[in-house]
Amino acid sequence: MNRTDEQEAIAFAIGRKMERREIESLRDKVSCAAVLDKNGFAIDVKESTRRAVKYRRGSEIIIVTHGGRGWFDPLSDAKGDIFGLVEHLDRVGFSACVAKVADLIGFHISKAEWQPGIPDGQSDLPLADRWQARRRPWRGSSTWRYLQDVRCLPTVLLCSAIKRNLLREGPQGTMWAAHTNEAGGVTGWEARGPQYRGFASGGTKVLFRLGSRAAVRLAVTEAAIDAMSLAAIEGLRDGTLYLSTGGGWSPTTAAALRGLASGPNVQLVAATDANPQGEIFAERLRAFAEEAGCDWMRLRPSQEDWNEVQKLRPKRGSEKQKLEEEAKEEEACRRRAGRVKGGFSRLKPALDAGGRDAGGRKRITKD
Question: Would you say the pTM of this structure is higher than 0.70?
Fold first, then answer.
């Protein structure tokens, strides 16, 4: 490829001490996606959003943010700009990073596409107002059907989550599952639907929490759907708080877990997925538990995640059928009660002129 005048200027600048403005210019010209694509990372379309694009290479994960200008590793504390990304991947010094980035001028990204986010039409409002503007799921609503029919979550579990103000009806049939801080304030939400997954625009991942706040058993999963699935499998086990990190490990998530793990006799349960990413996450939780001074155990699903396990559990009969049977029984009771009430006048026996009933028995009547 023939170099343009601009590329020649950058190449010349690398041969001497680069000025700050030249480095800034180079930083703005190359996307982190180009570095990842050239290094064999592939985009995970299913788990990417417009604002955060997830790339995978085996068990390695990099999230690209800020329109391709920033990145972070959800399984470590590593993050930064494009130069930091090259240094992180290639373990080279800054000068070598600059040279490698400059070589990417004009590099064409082969697979930088993702599913567009689903706008809620209220992204300019504060998070708390956007949350309150959405209805809670109800029987038969699109979110209810998605969680019950597609995700196979039982009614009792859904009612419990809704009662705790953890779920909302998102746009286009999506579910919103709240992440909250220690005070119970909503900081964001995981959005899941048949064709979409993401996190609230402008929100902060802390923890999705289902269960007792005084729990001594902390079951940590990677998604709210998995947290609810495990809760359904265990029957909302007493003393357990079912948690989701939303697939990440932010400083706010770590701080929230540290606060929960600081109590006496706490056990941290790594209930992450049965795949390389889940194993890495579980190992990180083990190290975290050791640092926090609490007990730790690995709880691995028999399928890839807990929702897949929940889907395979035998069903006791459809909820729709149960509701129909209950409605029929209630209607039958009302009819029986109506017949008894309306039949009292007919229960009074007819008497002949001598005051005897049809069986010849003498009846005493009052005037």
Answer: no
